[in-house]
Each structure stands twice: as C-alpha cells, then as structure tokens.
C-alpha cells in the first residue's frame, strides 16, 4: 500500500492526482470517470484499520488517519479503536476537558499546530478529533474528551483547535456528529432530542466549527438521533451539515458505525472505517444494481474521499520534525494554563520552598493524566510529582489507586507525615478504571479510600491542600475541612512539573470551570433520563443543560460554570455599549476595563452572558456568548471589547426551523463566572419579522386578533 511517507516519490510519479487547488474539481471528476463502479465502491471503504484505500491501477495513493486530539495515537502494528494495543511513543497533552478550562482560544490553536505538526512528521494526514459533544451529564464516560456543557465554549475552543491543526496542512476530523452524549448503549442507543434543543445545544458547536474553521472531515456518531442511525441520517448529514451549513468536506463513519452502507451513501456518508472488509463494498454494488442507489450518489461520495486524499497528499510536509522533548514542555505549559483554583483559604497557596510539606498520594508516583480508550497516548516522557519535589517536601503514598478500600498502614503513615509538616498536599481524583470510553460512571464520588484519607489528614493538618486529577466533576464531602483545592483535570504528561509550578507559584492558576460541579448527582438536569431505558434516551431537560438548568431552578451548586480563583485579584469597571437599540444585521460593541488589583501577575477570563427577556418560549436565565482571556501585571489595566450580533441574542424557533431573535429588552452581563456577574447594560432589539403563531380550528378569536401580523 502507498502511504504518505512515500510522498515525495508519489508526487513525481502520480501527477494526475496531485494537482494544484484550482484544477482540483475538474481533474477529480475526470479521474472518477476512469474508475469502474467496483473501484468506486472500494474507495468508499478504507483499505485497512487506519488508511483509505489505494487504487494502484490509477495510481491513487492512500492516506493515514490517527486518533487524537490530546496527542497522536499512531498504530503501526496491531490496531484497535479502544486504546488496547500500543502506539508510537508520542506526547500526551491535556485532555479537551482541561483545555476548555483555559478559556484560551489562542492556546487551543497553538495546541492544534503542535499536534498537526506531529502528524506531518509521522505521515498522518487526518487527525481524528476534536470531539465536540456537549457534556449533558457529568457521568458520561468520555466527558474528559469533550470541552464543555456550553455550546459557545465548545464551539470556540473546537474551532481554534481545528484552525491550528489545519494550518500545518494536516486535516482535522470533528466528532461525534451528533447527540453522542453517553457511552451506555453506545453502538445502538437512540438520542431523542427535540428540534430546538438539538440546534441550540447539541449541534451548535458543530455548526460553529464547520462555519468558522472548515474541518476537512466530520465523523458521524454511533448512535441514532430521533430513530435514525447517524450513519444513515440524511437530515443530519445532508440537510443540516451540507445544505444549511455549507459543509464541503468528507464525512467518515465512527469506527464500525455502519449499518446499511448503501443507505448511508444516499444519506451523505462518504467513507466507511475501518476498512478491510468487503461487506460495505458489496452492499453499495448491490444497491446500484437494484436501482436503490444511483451511480451519481456513489460519485458524489467518491469525490469527497478523493478530495481528502488529494489534500492530504498535497499538504504533506515530509521535512516536519516531531520534537518530543519540546512538545512535552509545551504540554506542561498548557497544563499550567488549564488548572482551576477552586478554594484558597487565607491564601494558603502558593507554598514557599522554606516550609515543610507532606506530599501524599499514589498519583505522585503513578500519575493519572489522561483518559482511557481511543484517545490514549503512549507517552514518551512522563513528569511525575515525586521527581519534581522541592527541598522541604517529602512523599508518602497514602492510598492504593487500584483499590477503593483504605489501607490502614498507608493512611496512618500519611497522617503522621501531615501532622509533622507545615502543610499537606494530597494528590487525589479518579483512577482510570472510574472513567473511560465505553462506560459511563454511576456516581460522582471519588474512591472511598481517598475521601477517608483527605478527612483524616485534614483532621490533623489545617493547611491541607487537595490537588485533583479527574476528567469530569466529582463531589467533595471534605470541602469545608480543607484549606485549598486545585483542579488539574487530566493534564497530560507534563503533570508532575505543572502541579509543582502551580503549587509553588511559578505559575498562577487562571483556568475557569467549563462545566458546573453540582452538589450531588440527583441535582443534575438529566438525572431522570440518563442513560435512558431500553436503548432510548429522551433529552427531556431540553435546552436546560448545565448552568442553564441550575440557574433556572435557582439551585445551589458546588462550583458554578465559569468559576476559578487566582493568586491575584481583578476588578471590572467602565462597561459601555455603543448602542441602546439594535436590529437584524447590526452589531453591538461592548467594552469594559479589567484591572489586576493584586500583587502578582495573572490572567483573568472575562465572560459575557446574555439574559433574554421573557417571551413565548422559556429560555435560560443567561447564556455565555463570548469570553476573553487577558494577562495583566499587578496594577495593569486593559480595555476589552466584545461584539455581539442578532444571532447572539437568538434562540432556535421550531416554527421557523431557524434561529430567531424576538423583540425585547436584553441584558448584557459581564462577569468572572456565571454566578459572579459584575457589570450589566441593557439593549433593546427590534425584530424585522414577528414570531409566527400556530392557529388551529380551536383557536379563539382573541388568539387570532392578538397576532401582531394583523
Ligand atoms: C471512537 C472514535 C475514534 C475511533 C478510532 C471509536 O471507537 O469513538 O472517537 O476516533 O474509534 O479509534
């Protein structure tokens, strides 16, 4: 099989396929005319686990795809899509859950550049990521791979990542399209979602990334949406993705997501992966023979596959170098930008090197830094906390991460060490067996032995600091007893050094929570409908996902969306809006000043929310619409500008099958979290078209005359 590594030779030998962009269309169509129907059907199924299929007769090469996005999982020997077999030594970057906590699109873009370059160096043309699914429940086993409970944050971080990857010439494949929000029944489940919720929450990040970053590929999800498998779903793959959003790239199945291949091609699915089997090929041939699939439909899919192959070949940089040491340093830097400081009583952090510190936890020697499953990276280097301890720090294991039961000897050793020291730092969180692709959690609790250890240590040591490694929210029954909590998420293989830099103030935490930490599982919006019954999951909470739900219900939470502390402090002032009225097609400029009022350099994430007026449809109390991360020296001030348009004030109106902004008065809110709004202004919006009303034979005269159209 031909592969990208032989690209220089291919370039000289096969000019027919390797054309410059302007001629692409014409020549690919000419090439398609030379293919037999059999060859066309073959091109629509991969050649093996990770490659497209080469057609030697016409000198059409194959390209390679590999998992990501938090590092490269390139498999050259045994292959699997569950992270079981080995892969090329690479660098594990923070998982998407962590990257989202940075609220830093420039950082996400840089990450994309670095991973894209690694792909180039390894001959991988398409990176399978990022995942854009919304965190509907904190229990979803793949939440560590996803960005947020909020579609704007997920869309902006995802678009930046895709732009970064594709700036290197590597393609990015966004996934899993769509409404793939749980692992229970993952190959067969049906996500039943109303039209408004689908567009406003679950499709919105995909829409943003498709329109802003033009990913080369979209991966369809395993599940059904409203009764139809995503791999056969014409509404999703053609009507929405291509017709409404203008997508022009290639659509690939998730690995093994194909049901009926011919039905899929008709619905807009181009490439079946993994390859190597004739089943799908035969189904396409049979369907064409039976007249249920036209050759034009086959050609359309072949064109999309060939375009992807051609782009991969043309954009390959054979000279790219994968510098594992430099990229590992970058992974550590990103981890420092993602950490969220949740509690810091009496400024117990940062620590000073003069104080004696008891470092406690199995994770210090065997760190938890990445999630399990297809995104699992084989790290070339891992920085462990025990290897980065400053003088004055000593380590005890405290618990066994392979067990949930307390080991008395380990616990007592840790308590004794904590009692003698000036402070205790406990590295805790979720072992890998608690969260992984393929299985959802059933509880938000950490292992009992870790909770017991934290209680016991904080009984003897008032300066107890808990550092957490987990891919999704947990409960913290000991929160009132400890002095500080630093949430690291799954920070990649720079974990040990990054943790120490943050604890000792070489880095100042600047992350904010990209999701709500609820007080308990029973409070979560999808509690009654997760993970569904008999393979059917009804999204009955509608658009009220994450903070949209907790705010509407006026519920207390453990930590709200957007929350995070710093070793310094920030003040917000001077908010202005450049107009008090706006309409369709107009832009609202919002400005404000942020000042670092503390004594250390730091970064603040300024968040802009819109609170809509009451109307015919129930809407969330407030929704994130924009954000900016700003670095400030002590005393430094910076003016921040946001721009909003009508779509930022809109909701999805099912009667129109489109987004709609009703006339009314909107509050523009700026804050440091969803529950810490510091500044507000009002703007009134006037809609060009009134909202359509639905009348039936039972509508009253009063209903009809109250229609603003009359
Ligand atoms: C996962 C995808 C992954 C693919 C290839 C599937 O099981 O859902 O996210 O890209 O395998 O490994």
From TrEMBL:
* Family matches, as Gene3D superfamilies: Glycoside hydrolase family 3 C-terminal domain, Glycoside hydrolase, family 3, N-terminal domain, Immunoglobulins
Which SMART domains does the record cross-reference, listed alphabetically? Fn3_like
Q: Would I find Transmembrane among this entry's keywords? A: no
Keywords on record: Hydrolase
* The keyword Nucleotide-binding appears for this protein: no
Domain Fibronectin type III-like, chain residue ranges per copy: 604-674
Q: Can you tell which superkingdom this protein's organism belongs to?
A: Bacteria
Can you provide one Gene Ontology molecular function annotated for this UniProt record?
A: beta-glucosidase activity
What are its GO biological-process terms?
carbohydrate metabolic process
**Listed InterPro entries:** Cellulose_deg_GH3, Fn3-like, GH, Glyco_hydro_3_C, Glyco_hydro_3_C_sf, Glyco_hydro_3_N, Glyco_hydro_3_N_sf, Ig-like_fold
**Family, per entry:** Belongs to the glycosyl hydrolase 3 family.
| Protein name as annotated | Glycosyl hydrolase family 3 N-terminal domain protein
- Source species of the chain: Subdoligranulum variabile DSM 15176
């Amino acid at each position: 099989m031909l592969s990208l590594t032989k690209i220089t030779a291919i370039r000289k030998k096969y000019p027919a396929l390797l054309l410059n962009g302007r001629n692409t269309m014409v020549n690919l169509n000419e090439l398609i005319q030379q293919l037999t129907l059999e060859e066309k059907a073959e091109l629509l199924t991969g050649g093996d686990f990770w490659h497209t299929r080469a057609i030697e007769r016409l000198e059409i090469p194959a390209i390679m795809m590999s998992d990501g996005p938090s590092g490269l999982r390139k498999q050259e020997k045994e292959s699997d899509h569950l992270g079981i077999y080995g892969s090329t030594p690479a660098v594990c970057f923070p998982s998407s859950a962590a990257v989202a906590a940075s609220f830093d699109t420039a950082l996400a873009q840089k990450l994309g550049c670095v991973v894209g370059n690694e792909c180039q160096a390894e001959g991988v043309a398409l990176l399978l990521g990022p995942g854009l699914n919304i965190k509907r429940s904190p229990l979803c086993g793949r939440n560590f791979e996803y960005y947020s409970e909020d579609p704007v944050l997920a869309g902006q971080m995802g678009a930046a990542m895709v732009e970064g990857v594709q700036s290197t010439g590597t393609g990015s494949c966004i996934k899993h399209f769509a409404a793939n929000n749980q692992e229970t029944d993952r190959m067969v489940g049906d996500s039943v979602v109303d039209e408004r919720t689908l567009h406003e929450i679950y499709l919105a990040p995909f829409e943003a990334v498709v329109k802003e970053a033009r990913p080369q590929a979209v991966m369809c999800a395993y599940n059904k949406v409203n009764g139809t498998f995503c791999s056969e779903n014409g509404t999703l793959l053609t009507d929405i993705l291509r017709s409404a959003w203008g997508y022009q790239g290639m659509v690939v199945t998730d690995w093994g997501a194909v049901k009926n291949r011919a039905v899929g091609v008709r619905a807009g699915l181009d490439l079946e992966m993994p390859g190597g089997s004739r089943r799908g090929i035969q189904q396409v041939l049979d369907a064409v023979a039976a007249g249920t699939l036209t050759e034009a439909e086959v050609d359309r899919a072949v064109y999309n596959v060939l375009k992807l192959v051609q782009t991969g070949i043309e954009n390959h940089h054979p000279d790219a170098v994968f510098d594992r040491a430099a990229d590992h340093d970058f992974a550590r830097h990103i981890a420092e930008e993602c950490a969220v400081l949740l509690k810091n009583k009496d400024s117990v952090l940062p620590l000073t090197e003069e104080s004696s510190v008891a470092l406690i936890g199995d994770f210090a020697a065997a760190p938890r830094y990445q999630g399990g499953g297809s995104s699992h990276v084989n790290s070339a280097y891992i920085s462990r906390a025990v290897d980065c301890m400053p003088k004055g720090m000593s380590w005890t294991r405290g618990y066994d991460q392979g067990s949930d039961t307390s080991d008395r000897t380990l616990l007592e050793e840790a308590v004794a060490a904590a009692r003698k020291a000036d402070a205790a730092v406990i590295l805790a969180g979720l072992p890998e067996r608690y969260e992984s692709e393929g299985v959802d959690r059933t509880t938000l609790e950490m292992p009992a032995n870790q909770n017991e250890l934290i209680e016991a240590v904080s009984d003897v040591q008032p300066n107890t600091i808990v550092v957490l490694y987990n891919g999704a929210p947990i409960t913290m029954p000991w929160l009132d007893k400890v002095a500080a909590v630093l949430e690291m998420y799954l920070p990649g293989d720079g974990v040990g050094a990054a943790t120490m830099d943050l604890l000792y103030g070489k880095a100042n935490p600047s992350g904010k929570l990209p999701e709500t930490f609820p007080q308990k599982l029973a409070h979560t919006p999808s509690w009654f409908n997760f993970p569904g019954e008999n393979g059917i999951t009804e999204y009955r909470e509608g658009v009220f996902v994450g903070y949209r739900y907790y705010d509407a219900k006026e519920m207390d939470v453990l930590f709200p969306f957007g929350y995070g502390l710093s070793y310094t402090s920030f003040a917000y002032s001077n908010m202005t809006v450049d107009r008090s009225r706006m309409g369709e097609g107009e832009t609202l400029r919002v400005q404000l000043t942020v000042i670092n009022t503390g004594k250390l350099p730091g970064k603040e994430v300024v968040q802009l929310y819109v609170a809509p007026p009451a109307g015919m449809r129930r809407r969330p109390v407030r929704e994130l619409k924009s954000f900016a991360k700003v670095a400030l020296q002590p005393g430094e001030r910076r003016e921040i500008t946001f721009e909003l348009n009508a779509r930022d004030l809109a909701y999805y109106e099912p009667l129109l099958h489109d987004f709609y902004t009703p006339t009314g008065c909107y509050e523009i809110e700026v804050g440091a979290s969803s529950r810490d709004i510091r500044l507000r202004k009002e703007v009134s919006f006037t809609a060009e078209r009134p909202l359509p009303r639905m009348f039936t034979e039972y509508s009253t005269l009063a209903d009809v005359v109250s229609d603003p159209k009359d």
